[in-house]
Amino acid sequence: MNIRMNNIKNNKYALLVALMITIQFINEVIVEIIGNEVSVMPALFVLLFLYYIFISLRHGVLNFKISYIIIGLLISTYYCISYLLYSDVISVSLTFFFGFCFMPYLFMYKQVDTKLVITYVVKISVIAIPVVNGIFNYSQSGVLYNSIPMGMAYAILPVIISSFVHFIYYRKSSTLWVKIAYVANLYYLVKLLSLGNRGIILSLIFALILVYLIRFDKNGHRIFKNSYLFITQIIIVSLTVGIIIVNFQQFFIIIYNKLNAFGINPAFLSKTNFLLANGNVDNGRIELISLGLNGFIKSPLWGNGIGVFGVNNTLGLYPHNLFVQLLYDGGLILTVPIVYLLLSCTIRIFKTTQLNQGFPLFILLFSTSIPRLMVSADIWKVQTFWMLLAFVIVNFSSHMTVDSGKDKEI
Questions:
Q1: Tens digit of pLDDT for each residue in 38-63?
Q2: How much is the average pLDDT of 397-410?
Q3: HEC profile for 172-218?
Q4: Which residue pairs from 400-406 have beta carbons closer than 8 angstroms and sit at least 24 positions apart in sequence?
Q5: What pLDDT was estimated at residue 244?
Q6: Please, which residues have CB within 8 angstroms of residue 385's CB and are 6 or more apart in sequence?
Q7: Less Cβ around it within 10 Å: N or C end of the chain?
């Protein structure tokens, strides 16, 4: 009986996490189904939070890591102060902060069954099948190339990477539902490679690299590579990447022309070619990063406040870089603990020896947040980043915990 009850609890909690990961995807599908361009995201936030309360009241909440509590309070305090001071100009609304930062961080309060979460995300992906043509109905992004909206592309990304991760690690236990999802996500991937932006491609590459670096055998045990061979591979890859970066324009033109000769013209290559022709391959990001660093220098300790970057310039609402935005918004007080915990716990993840220690979920959360945040998105509106932060703290931090005194079986 206790085993059955624990399984029910684990399933409910895993579903909560999966729904949080896919909330933007679900929103896009619902909007496409009802034929209304008005987002239903606020309603989804409310429903998901009510589900969280239901789970918490029914089964209890316990064992909060001290570091988890401190970071949560620090982030919430910073936003509250920013909102009180700049409520008329702040670019991160209370609704979006609650739904894309506070809720995702809160929901990862305890360890979760990685396989269940990945499986749920894969199953959720099939809801887009009836409206798949509408979802990939591209919008014109200029006279030279077509692409789907960036928000749509990043909403689809988690279900594709989840299917990839599930196929790599859990395909032997796949059901008919999951196999149908494999096929659907393969189609999503092909369309996304054709119509997605450059950040999407970067995220997919990171997912591939993580799977390649950390491997497990059929029993879920870590396969440790020969250290000399591994180091040699890292050096070769690093040198290759370095050579490509130094000679990027020449390499790009060769690849672009070769693919064009075969009628292959994906959006991310067309956009890069367009920006290169105009001498602006970074698309203004360097200037935004420079503005962000200058703002940090003016207030290095406390920062300038969350969601106020756009008040002081007309180029953008955020610096388009994870670390620069943290420094600008929260200064060293907010940046140092977040970055320290994220890096130190991530190092521990790379030392994991068992598949069931959560590495597949780390791949999903990392590849859908970090690459994206290094080149584009607003950190306060990317839920998988805050889920990643909470996940590594809860699972790989060595800090003490605070017991709520409720049901110990969770």
A1: 789 999 999 999 999 988 877 655 56
A2: 46
A3: HHCCHHHHHHHHHHHHHHHHHHHHCCHHHHHHHHHHHHHHHHCEECC
A4: 400/65, 400/66, 401/63, 401/64, 401/65, 401/66, 402/63, 402/64, 402/65, 402/66, 402/69, 403/62, 403/63, 404/60, 404/61, 404/62, 404/63, 404/64, 405/62, 406/60, 406/61, 406/62
A5: 65
A6: 322, 365, 369, 370, 373, 379
A7: N
d(CA 245, CA 144): 25
Per the CB < 8 A criterion, the answer to whether 366 and 388 are in contact is yes
pLDDT tens track for 263-320: 777 766 666 666 666 666 556 678 888 899 999 999 999 999 999 988 877 777 889 8
CA 276, CA 154: separation in Å to the nearest integer? 24
Q: Which of 42, 25, 28, 19 is nearest to 107 (CA)?
A: 19
Q: Is 268 helix (H, G, I), strand (E, B) or coil?
A: helix
Q: Is the pLDDT of residue 2 over 60?
A: no
- Residue whose structure tokens are 């990171």: 206
The sign of the torsion formed by the CA atoms of 196, 201, 207, 211 equals positive
Which structure tokens are listed for 388?
Answer: 């990643």
* H or E segment and range at residue 270: helix 267-277
* Residue partners of 34: CB distance under 8 A and separation at least 6: 40
Q: What's the 3-state SS for 285-299?
A: HHHHHHHHHHHHHHC
Tokens 């970066």, located at residue: 245
CB count within 10 Å of CB 46 equals: 13
Please tell me which residue, 376 or 368, carries the higher pLDDT value. 368
Neighbouring CB atoms inside 10 A of 22's CB total 25
Q: How many residues does the chain have?
A: 410
Sketch the domain layout of the chain as residue ranges.
2-402
CA distance 305 to 298: 12
Quote the mean pLDDT of the chain.
Answer: 84
